[in-house]
Automatic annotation (TrEMBL):
Name used for this protein in its record: Hydroxymethylglutaryl-CoA reductase, degradative
Endpoints of the signal sequence: none
Species of provenance: Scardovia wiggsiae F0424
GO MF, one annotated term: hydroxymethylglutaryl-CoA reductase (NADPH) activity
BP GO annotations: coenzyme A metabolic process
Membrane spanning residue stretches: none
Keywords: Oxidoreductase
PANTHER family found in the cross-reference section: 3-HYDROXY-3-METHYLGLUTARYL-COENZYME A REDUCTASE
InterPro entries: HMG_CoA_Rdtase, HMG_CoA_Rdtase_bac-typ, HMG_CoA_Rdtase_cat_sf, HMG_CoA_Rdtase_NAD(P)-bd_sf, HMG_CoA_Rdtase_sub-bd_dom_sf
Superkingdom, taxonomy of origin: Bacteria
Length: 583
């Protein structure tokens, strides 16, 4: 992209060379850049003070800038416009009407800070990723992990097919009586209508198989009803991809599958092509472990009547919601198909709703290969750090305690970016942890190994039920801006960024654990929060935080430091309370 002509071409080329050496993005051209130059001068005719301020800002590390300075950098890079900058800087909360109508029993608003994970390179593209979190060190760790990944060529990522599962359930258990049976007067008078339930497990299993066969014969009807329930999503190229009928529990286990891939499409994608996995299958079963549902300990799961569940027939609908997260779309389609299926089977549906359990084919993947010397700390060599990271990863595969915390660290980054975008963090968390436990044992979502080249190789697989349109994000101005800053043109690209963010967040956390320990950096950044909790305000926050760096970092110490600062201050130096506030 072209830049305006500069009077000093040699200086311009030198500045760009410095940026390349630092691996920082060259400022983009366009109307935003011209606007910046009108305000700050072009180096020849502008204000000398403004030019010096601009140069200092360009030369400073992003985290050392003020919030206004960081916004200015993002505007210079073409990430946001001047209007975006004003909207972000002036945002004080949701409009009262918006807040009142988003949830029930609304009494106020709850604010969290938004930050930026800088320069995350994914598939050769640089992203500035907005995140929202209350936890110190998350943004710093993710940015540090992104820096390491970028020094090693960036992260390679791939999204699976974006589809959501809806399930329609019919109950045929012995304890359900005839509550699920539609009376003949309601339009069904088939034989055996009352055999499911009161006749016992055997007949219930037979009835479940009959219901499954009925659903199977209505393949075309299922598609017709699904498409009619949400024609707009079909118009965008989405809609029903396939369905599957299963019998859960009962005496007649069976599964009926009818894949219906849309023309020119498939319901899933291959995994990462040419994936290097020296450590074996990622997220496989834990060796030497015993994973059995709680309950009967004297038999295999479900081989006796005392621990066999109720009999159910499940009709699963696999739906493409395009760039939406898909919850409302899938629920609408499920309820329409359920109503039709009740007429075909003579049974009321127990439930019809989406599942937050994402199909394995839809999981996103990301991988990075790291040269050990880029991991070195002041006290540890890169080779030692790399070896310890691989050992920590191996530990997570055999120790659930470590696996849970390992995955929590991954979600630190992912959930923060999901929240910033206005997506459903609970859906993403639930899907991720279900995926981690899909073998029957809770496993780490990522794995790190030393490969044959002596480099540290890491890979993550994680389902990400998100969207870039619809949902609450349309009513949340900051979510709209976050998606603009992130630059996610499609849901698949957003999933690639999220998976990569989780991987580099995990890398930074494991590097800290393998080296100086997690608390050294975390508590240094936590000092600001302690200062504010102690009651520090304005310049007091920085003073208390600075003194805390050499003291025990706890709330009592912060309170003592603040009292000393206020006790030694002359009356005229006291911080003025905010209007309406108290000291």
């Amino acid at each position: 992209m072209c830049r305006q002509e500069q009077p000093d071409n040699q200086a311009q080329h030198g500045e760009q060379a410095v940026r390349r050496e630092r691996r920082e993005p060259v400022f983009r051209g366009g109307s935003e850049e011209r606007e910046v130059r009108e305000v700050h001068g072009d180096g020849e005719t502008g204000s000398g003070c403004a030019v010096r301020e601009l140069r200092e800002m360009r030369g400073s590390k992003f985290y050392r800038l003020s919030p206004q300075g960081r916004l200015q950098v993002l505007m210079q890079e073409g990430v946001i416009t001047a209007e975006d900058m004003q909207e972000i800087a002036g945002f004080t909360g949701l409009d009262a009407d918006a807040a009142r109508n988003l949830i029930e029993n609304q009494i106020g608003q709850f604010a969290l800070p938004m930050g930026i994970v800088r320069n995350l390179e994914v598939n050769g593209k640089i992203y500035q990723v907005p995140v929202v979190t209350e936890e110190p060190s998350v943004v710093a760790a993710a940015s540090n992990g992104a820096r390491i990944a970028r020094a090693n060529g960036g992260v390679a990522a791939q999204a699976g097919s974006h589809c959501v599962t809806g399930e329609i359930i019919f109950s045929c258990g012995s304890s359900s009586g005839d509550a699920g049976v539609i009376d003949a007067g309601e339009g069904y008078a088939g034989s055996g209508a009352n055999s499911c339930g009161a006749a016992g497990d055997a007949r219930g299993g037979i009835e479940a198989a009959r219901i499954a066969r009925i659903l199977e014969t209505h393949s075309d009807d299922i598609r017709t009803v699904a498409n009619a329930a949400h024609p707009s999503i079909v118009g965008y190229g989405g809609g029903l991809l396939s369905y599957k009928v299963e019998i859960l529990g009962g005496d007649v286990p069976a599964a009926y599958s009818s894949p219906m891939p849309k023309e020119g499409e498939s319901a899933g994608r291959e995994g990462l092509a040419g994936r290097e996995d020296p450590g074996g299958s990622l997220n496989g079963s834990r060796p030497g472990s015993s994973c059995r549902p709680s309950g009967c300990n004297s038999c295999k799961p479900y081989d006796c009547s005392s621990c066999r569940p109720e009999g159910f027939v499940k009709l699963s609908l696999i739906i493409d919601p395009c760039d939406a997260m898909g919850a409302n779309i899938v629920n609408t389609i499920c309820e329409a198909v359920a109503a039709a299926a009740e007429g075909w089977t003579g049974y009321r549906a127990l439930t019809a709703i989406l599942s937050n359990n994402v199909p394995a084919a839809s999981a996103a993947s990301a991988r990075v290969e790291v040269q050990p010397h880029t991991l070195a700390t002041r006290s540890c060599s890169g080779e030692l750090i790399a070896r310890r990271i691989a050992e920590l990863s191996a530990l997570a595969r055999i120790d659930t305690d470590r696996a849970v915390t390992h995955n929590k660290g991954i979600m630190n980054g992912i959930s923060s970016a999901v929240l910033a975008s206005g997506n459903d963090t609970r859906a993403v968390e639930a899907g991720a942890h279900a995926f981690a436990a899909r073998t029957g044992c809770y496993m780490p979502l990522s794995e790190w190994v030393l490969n044959s080249r002596g480099n540290l190789y890491g890979e993550i697989r994680i389902p990400l039920q998100v969207g870039i349109i619809g949902g609450a994000s349309g009513a949340l101005p900051m979510a709209r801006l976050a998606k603009k800053i992130g630059g996610y043109p499609s849901v698949q690209e957003f999933q690639c960024v999220l998976a990569s963010l989780g991987l580099v967040q995990n890398l930074a956390a494991l590097r800290a654990l393998a080296g100086p320990g997690i608390q050294q950096g975390h508590m240094a950044l936590h000092a600001n929060a302690l200062a504010m909790a102690a009651g520090a305000r304005g310049s007091e926050i920085e003073q208390v935080s600075r003194i805390l760096q050499g003291r025990d970092k706890n709330l009592e110490t912060a309170v003592e430091i603040l009292a000393d600062i206020r006790g030694s201050r002359r009356p005229e130096e006291s911080e003025e309370p905010e209007e309406g506030g108290i000291r």
